[in-house]
């Protein structure tokens, strides 16, 4: 008990539930400052008091409440800090004594006032310079900010375009993988271990392909290797190629048949101009 | 940084530094509970929603006054929300329930019914356990806690309204909170939010 007739034991539970008068609150606050045991007891009581809040069924607020709250927050952050306006000067009517006294001390006061004015004048000038410098800095930063915003917007547009391009390419690759074979190895049918062929269906549009032959025997000038598309009913002629002294030859096909229609590719030896139907033996064969 | 993993107190530190996302996270975490509490006090949904918004606005603007060494964020938050709700209620007198002291017994029975309904409706086991613990309090103790916590009435106001000696009110408040703590421990509820 104290001069206010307060008993801390009586007040703590109500303080924990925030149900005290201002006077009682001040008393408890002061008491807690110097009594750690009371603080510990209060913590326990507050835990129970907080639990009372959970006896109420929670209610989901509409989104508009949060929107309004966050709107206020954003507005506050955007709003400039209010300037502190100087208090308006109140005219004071002076007595004759005050006037006389002022007239006697005026010269001294005037000199002092001049000194003060000069001091503050210089100081004000310095502050004005600082202010001007800061304003310039703000303008520069604002310009930078605007430029960066524009650059960011431009980069975003470029990023979007690149993303679209990547998506397109990814789709094309997916199509290529799922619709047509893109690579095929051809092996010798006559037991020549060095002879081999590799066929790439190279472009997104599927209309360009490359055939690479390696380790092939060098043919007489009147002969050439010819590529054939193989299907269940037979073969369809494609183009001819020759190989160099190392047995290496490359054929670029700018118009490729729909490979899904065929079961494989074959290479035969034909007359240099090529044949409509195969006349020589198949030397390389690959199946899809 | 994943704010959802941060404690309330850590988020408050961020709110002190004026991070809106931290306030947003605290709102998402507690708004429903706070709205439930302030609605219980003011008894009007629209007014309760205004109080909710104002409470979080005050949390935003007074974040530097929160001291985590002095207590949990939820204690401070509920204090802000309840005080404002009680002020609004007293000014507008809009709350339709639990205001008439002559019907306290009926009101408490109603509260108990609401608690029972809540128990079956709620999927929150912890909240159910707390409701059970409060419902298990003796009626006279629960009455004092109800009047103090949800109506903001001081000990003298409660004594006057219930026509019960002040000393008895003191005892009931203390025993009520202590018993509630004991029941929560017995039920294994560690109320740390």
Q: Helical residue percent of chain B?
A: over 70%
Structural Rg of chain B:
17 Å
Distance between the termini of chain B: 21 Å
Question: How would the global form of chain A be characterised?
Answer: elongated
What's the order of the H and E elements of chain A? HHHHHEEEEEEEE
Give a concise summary.
The complex is a heterodimer of chains A (288) and B (193). Chain A is an alpha+beta fold.
Features:
heterodimer; A: 288 residues; alpha+beta; Immunoglobulin-like; eight-stranded antiparallel beta sheet; 49% helix; B: mainly alpha; Rna Polymerase Sigma Factor, Chain: A; Arc Repressor Mutant, subunit A
Structural features, described:
The complex is a heterodimer of chains A (288) and B (193). Helix content of chain A is 49%, strand content 19%. Chain A is built from five helices and eight strands; from the N terminus they run αααααββββββββ. Chain A has helices at residues 8-16, 22-34, 36-53, 63-78, 96-179, and strands at 183-188, 196-201, 209-214, 223-231, 234-241, 249-253, 264-271, 282-287. In chain A, a hairpin with a 2-residue loop joins strand 4 (223-231) and strand 5 (234-241). With 193 residues, chain B is mainly α. Chain B has two domains: 3-92, RNA polymerase sigma factor, region 2, helix turn helix motif (Rna Polymerase Sigma Factor, Chain: A), CATH 1.10.1740.10; 101-186, Orthogonal Bundle (Arc Repressor Mutant, subunit A), CATH 1.10.10. Chain B is 72% helix and 0% strand. Chain B has helices at residues 8-16, 20-42, 45-61, 73-92, 104-121, 125-135, 139-149, 155-162, 166-186. Chains A and B meet through helix 1, helix 3 and helix 4 of A and helix 2, helix 3, helix 4, helix 5 and helix 6 of B.
Give the topology.
The complex is a heterodimer of chains A (288) and B (193).
Chain A: H1 8-16, H2 22-34, H3 36-53, H4 63-78, H5 96-179, E1 183-188, E2 196-201, E3 209-214, E4 223-231, E5 234-241, E6 249-253, E7 264-271, E8 282-287
Antiparallel strand pairs in A: 1-2, 1-8, 2-3, 3-6, 4-5, 4-7, 7-8
Helix pairs in contact in A: 1-2, 1-3, 2-3
Chain B: H1 8-16, H2 20-42, H3 45-61, H4 73-92, H5 104-121, H6 125-135, H7 139-149, H8 155-162, H9 166-186
């Amino acid at each position: 008990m104290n001069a206010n007739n307060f008993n801390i034991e009586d007040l703590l539970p109500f303080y924990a539930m925030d149900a005290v008068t201002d006077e009682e609150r001040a008393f408890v606050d002061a008491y807690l400052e110097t009594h750690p045991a009371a603080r510990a007891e209060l913590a326990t009581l507050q835990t129970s008091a907080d639990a009372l809040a959970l006896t109420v069924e929670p209610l989901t607020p509409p989104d508009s409440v949060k929107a309004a709250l966050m709107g206020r927050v954003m507005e506050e952050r955007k709003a400039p800090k209010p300037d502190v306006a100087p208090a308006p000067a109140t005219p004071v009517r002076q007595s004759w004594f005050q006037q006389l006294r002022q007239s006697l001390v005026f010269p001294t006061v005037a000199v002092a006032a001049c000194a003060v004015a000069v001091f503050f004048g210089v100081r004000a000038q310095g502050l004005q310079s600082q202010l001007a410098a800061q304003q310039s800095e703000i303008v520069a930063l604002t310009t930078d900010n605007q430029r960066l915003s524009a650059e960011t917007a431009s980069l975003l547009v470029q990023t979007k375009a690149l993303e679209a391009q990547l998506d397109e390419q990814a789709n094309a690759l997916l199509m290529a993988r799922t619709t047509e074979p893109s690579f095929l190895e051809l092996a010798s049918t006559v037991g020549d271990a060095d002879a081999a062929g590799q066929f790439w269906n190279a472009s997104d549009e599927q209309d360009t392909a490359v055939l690479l032959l390696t380790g092939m025997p060098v043919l007489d000038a009147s002969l050439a290797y010819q590529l054939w598309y193989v299907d269940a009913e037979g073969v369809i002629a494609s183009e001819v190629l020759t190989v160099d002294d190392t047995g290496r030859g490359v054929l670029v096909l700018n118009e490729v048949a729909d490979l899904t229609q065929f079961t494989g590719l074959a290479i035969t030896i034909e007359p240099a101009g090529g044949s409509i139907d195969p006349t020589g033996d198949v030397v390389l064969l690959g199946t899809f | 940084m994943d704010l959802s993993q941060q404690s309330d107190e850590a988020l408050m530190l961020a709110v002190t530094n004026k991070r809106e996302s931290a306030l947003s996270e605290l709102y998402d975490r507690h708004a429903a509970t706070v709205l439930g509490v302030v609605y219980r006090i003011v008894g009007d949904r629209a007014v309760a929603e205004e109080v909710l918004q104002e409470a979080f606005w005050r949390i935003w603007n007074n974040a530097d006054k929160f001291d985590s060494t002095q207590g949990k964020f939820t204690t401070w938050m509920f204090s802000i929300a309840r005080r404002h709700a009680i002020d609004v209620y007293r000014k507008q007198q809009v709350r339709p329930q639990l205001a008439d002291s002559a019907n306290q017994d009926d009101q408490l029975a109603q509260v108990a019914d609401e608690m029972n309904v809540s128990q079956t409706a709620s999927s929150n086991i912890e909240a159910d356990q707390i409701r059970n613990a409060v419902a298990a309090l003796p009626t006279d103790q629960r009455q004092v806690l109800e009047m103090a916590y949800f109506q903001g009435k001081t000990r003298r106001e409660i004594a006057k309204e219930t026509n019960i000696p002040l000393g008895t009110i003191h005892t009931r408040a203390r025993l009520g909170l202590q018993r509630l703590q004991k029941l929560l421990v017995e039920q294994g509820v560690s109320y740390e939010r």
